[in-house]
């Protein structure tokens, strides 16, 4: 699978894409995140499909586990700290790190520098500083690093996008995910009302404050139903677990899909590496 | 010393209070409508400011500087206010501040006071203390009047009666003011309040205010408001008492230029407050002839000592974070059990009380960041919420089950092999609950999730298993 690294013209591998892209082949290290690894493996498979289709090499470092976000946000910073150290070790020499989760990227970008500074260890601060420019959320990687907005995908469905809080207010990805979706052939983009409102997930918040969390997702679900979309996409499966869980309980028939799974679908391989729309249950 | 924030020490947990309040559909509709109106107004007047972000940065820097030198600025304020004819008192806590206030009122043989809207007097429970001393306080802000007449509690720091709608207020005024008839238009209802209040403005000899800002350089006090009741209170009575939290200090008069742009746009969506009252000590023959300032600590110095959470004291009480908060939107302010509601209340109330009470408030947030984005003085509320959660955990006050769960998760994440083991155990544990790839009911704490939402079950193959298999099938 691995080919020599270097500039190349990439036409055939993209299939029906009506353009020829000239770019540098990258070795992209996938940080799958603990919950995608466990609950949403198809998202990771879709990321691999998309990146390889664009001509890049994907590596997966088997030692990786978790960025520490859950512990940090819940007040268990002492437990989050070794997970940061582990992440820094695991990805020390990675060229480019792709993370299909904006909340995990936000954890790394916003909180690793804080934790490193508080540790009083200059080498840790240095490690974090050299790590950050190599960390990309999936849609950032495509649009900013690889300069790709048309991934050659085909997905003939009506899709809306939930812009997750971390993607909006921490990563400030703006309309990058939307641009990626709008370039998918066959896809009809449905605008989402009150899109910047939180879905109510918030990690342990969804269990500790179950009534408020449920009321928040009920509003989100209503907006999604009003959009007329068959599928609600996002760049975070954590939000989609909350939204999808509610849509499924309400028996709406609307499905949730990580954006990578939509971008992975092509005319030749509809739903390859993707789930949700092909009929499999995705709560 | 006993620090008290209203009756927050006896409030139920946030989740319990929220569940109760969320059963009130009328209240939720009122809160949703009101916050949406203010949020949209704010967005439009903030959008027209090209230097909004620089203003926020400047305000944050001024506040940061002031808090680092607060002792010096407080003494400077005291000197300048005293020189201008004011009298400055220092109160360590609620009881001291109330006792000073009552002494001043009694020294004038007064039995009534008029009040300008002030959160700080609510914080120290001043009205109840005054009533206990045989003194009747009259709230003169329309919303505060509604709350007072209805024996209600404020639910928002800027618009305290936001949970009430027009018809509820009309009914309240007719009942409490003894009106046989009252029109249905907002103007009619406002007119009833005006008639009720004017007589008091002219008769009552002592007024009590808070302060939006206190200027160290000049000893001046600034109050901004929309209704003109504040202007009446700080100019008509013979005696004026201003209760000021020590964090309200700003160094220079010219600093007002920054804050008077940020505050009205953030608070009510106005470009400028209709009434900006700034006074310095006593002016012979004009306005109150006796002026007292009570500088209140009530837990603030403890917040000041925490270098991470210190910026909580930057707050200028604009309420923008409440209007932006999706949690507040669902529950309204009463769920927070404190006169300080919403995101700022969730970090301020527990800190003032030395983290001994209101411990569920730092968890009353999904950390969505909407509060931080609108905060005119750039208080990183999500980061402080996390910091306070950390304190709760470090103090051993977190639920035992949560601690065990987090320790197990920490073990699982410490090594990829552990994670695989934990996942395998999870696949077995989920068997009784799994139904066609989804989980509809779970026991214990996770039952909260499945009460309203389905959950995906753990698939047979993890990503890393898929990857390993693929590697075997397609070696590099």
Task: Give me the secondary-structure topology.
The complex is a heterodimer of chains A (283) and B (476).
Chain A: E1 7-10, E2 21-24, E3 27-30, H1 34-39, H2 41-53, E4 57-59, H3 69-73, H4 77-90, E5 96-99, H5 102-119, H6 122-131, E6 135-137, H7 138-145, E7 158-161, H8 165-170, H9 176-182, E8 188-190, H10 205-208, H11 210-227, E9 231-234, H12 237-249, E10 255-258, H13 259-264
Parallel strand pairs in A: 3-4, 3-5, 5-6, 7-8, 7-9, 9-10
Antiparallel strand pairs in A: 1-2
Chain B: H1 14-21, H2 25-47, H3 52-68, H4 70-83, E1 87-91, H5 94-107, E2 112-115, H6 119-123, H7 126-132, E3 136-139, H8 142-149, H9 166-176, H10 186-203, E4 206-209, E5 213-215, E6 220-225, H11 229-235, E7 239-245, E8 249-250, H12 256-267, E9 275-280, E10 290-296, H13 300-304, H14 320-324, H15 326-331, H16 342-352, H17 370-374, H18 381-394, H19 400-413, H20 416-429, E11 434-435, E12 438-439, H21 447-450, E13 455-456, H22 463-473
Parallel strand pairs in B: 1-10, 2-3, 2-4, 4-7, 5-8, 7-10
Antiparallel strand pairs in B: 5-6, 6-9, 11-12, 12-13
Helix pairs in contact in B: 3-12, 9-10, 16-18
């Amino acid at each position: 699978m691995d080919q020599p690294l270097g500039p190349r013209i990439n036409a055939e591998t993209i299939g029906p894409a009506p353009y020829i892209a000239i770019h540098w082949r990258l070795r992209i290290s996938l940080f799958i995140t603990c919950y995608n690894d466990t609950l949403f493996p198809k998202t990771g498979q879709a990321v691999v499909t998309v990146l390889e289709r664009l001509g890049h090499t994907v590596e997966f470092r088997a030692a990786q586990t978790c960025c520490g976000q859950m512990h940090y946000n819940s007040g268990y910073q002492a437990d989050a700290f070794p997970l940061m150290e582990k992440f820094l070790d695991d990805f020390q020499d990675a060229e480019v790190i792709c993370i299909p989760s904006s909340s995990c990227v936000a954890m790394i970008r916003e909180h690793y520098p804080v934790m490193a500074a508080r540790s009083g260890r200059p080498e840790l601060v240095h490690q974090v500083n050299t790590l950050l420019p190599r960390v990309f959320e999936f849609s950032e990687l495509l649009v900013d690093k690889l300069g790709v907005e048309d991934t050659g995908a085909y997905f003939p469905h009506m899709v809306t996008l939930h812009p997750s809080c971390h993607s909006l207010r921490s990563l400030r990805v703006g309309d990058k995910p939307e641009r990626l979706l709008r370039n998918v052939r066959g896809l009809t983009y449905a605008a989402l009302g009150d899109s910047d409102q939180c879905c109510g997930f918030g990690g342990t918040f969804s269990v500790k404050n179950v009534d408020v969390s449920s009321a928040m997702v009920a509003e989100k679900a209503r907006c999604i139903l009003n959009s007329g979309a068959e599928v609600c996409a996002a760049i975070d499966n954590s939000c989609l677990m909350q939204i999808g869980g509610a849509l499924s309980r309400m028996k709406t028939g609307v499905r949730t899909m990580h954006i990578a799974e939509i971008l992975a679908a092509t005319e030749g391989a509809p739903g390859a590496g993707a789930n949700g729309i092909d009929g499999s249950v995705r709560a | 010393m006993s620090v008290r924030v209203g009756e927050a020490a006896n409030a139920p947990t946030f989740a319990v209070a929220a569940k109760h309040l969320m059963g009130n559909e009328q209240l939720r509709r009122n809160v949703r409508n009101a916050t949406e109106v203010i949020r949209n107004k704010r967005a439009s007047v903030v959008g027209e400011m090209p230097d909004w972000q620089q203003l926020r940065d400047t305000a944050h820097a001024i506040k940061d500087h002031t808090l680092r030198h607060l002792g010096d600025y407080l003494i400077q304020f005291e000197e300048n206010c005293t020189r201008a004819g004011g009298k400055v008192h220092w109160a360590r806590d609620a009881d001291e501040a109330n006792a000073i206030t009552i002494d001043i009122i009694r020294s004038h043989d007064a039995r009534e006071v008029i009040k300008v809207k002030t959160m700080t007097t609510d914080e120290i429970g001043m009205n109840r203390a005054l009533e206990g001393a045989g003194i009747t306080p009259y709230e003169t802000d329309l919303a505060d009047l509604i709350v007072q007449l209805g024996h209600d509690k404020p639910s928002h720091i800027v618009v305290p009666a936001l949970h009430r709608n027009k018809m509820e207020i009309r009914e309240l005024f007719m009942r409490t003011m003894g009106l046989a008839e009252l029109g249905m238009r907002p103007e009619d209802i406002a007119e009833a309040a005006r008639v009720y209040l004017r007589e008091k403005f002219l008769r009552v000899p002592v007024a009590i205010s808070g302060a939006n800002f206190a200027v160290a350089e000049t000893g001046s006090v600034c109050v901004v408001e929309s209704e003109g009741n504040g202007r009446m209170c700080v100019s008509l009575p013979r005696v004026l008492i201003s209760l000021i939290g020590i964090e309200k200090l700003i160094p220079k008069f010219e600093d007002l230029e920054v804050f008077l742009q940020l505050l009205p746009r953030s608070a009510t969506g106005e470009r400028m407050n209709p009434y900006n009252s700034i006074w310095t000590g006593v002016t012979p023959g004009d306005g109150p002839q006796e002026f007292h300032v009570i500088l209140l600590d009530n837990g603030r110095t403890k917040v000041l000592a925490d270098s991470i959470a210190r910026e909580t004291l930057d707050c200028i009480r604009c309420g923008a974070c409440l209007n932006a908060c999706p949690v507040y939107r669902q529950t309204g302010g009463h769920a927070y059990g404190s006169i300080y509601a919403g995101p700022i209340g969730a970090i301020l109330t527990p800190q003032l009380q030395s983290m001994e009470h209101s411990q569920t408030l730092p968890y009353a947030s999904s950390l969505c960041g909407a509060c931080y984005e609108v905060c005119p003085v750039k208080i990183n509320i999500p980061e402080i919420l996390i910091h306070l959660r950390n304190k709760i955990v470090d103090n051993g006050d977190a639920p035992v089950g949560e601690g065990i769960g987090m320790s197990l998760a920490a073990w699982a994440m410490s090594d990829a092999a552990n994670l695989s083991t934990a996942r395998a155990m999870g696949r077995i544990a989920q068997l009784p609950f799994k139904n066609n790839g989804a989980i509809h009911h779970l026991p214990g704490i996770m039952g909260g999730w499945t009460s309203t939402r389905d959950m995906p079950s753990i698939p047979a193959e993890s990503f890393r298993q898929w990857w390993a298999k693929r590697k075997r099938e397609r070696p590099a």
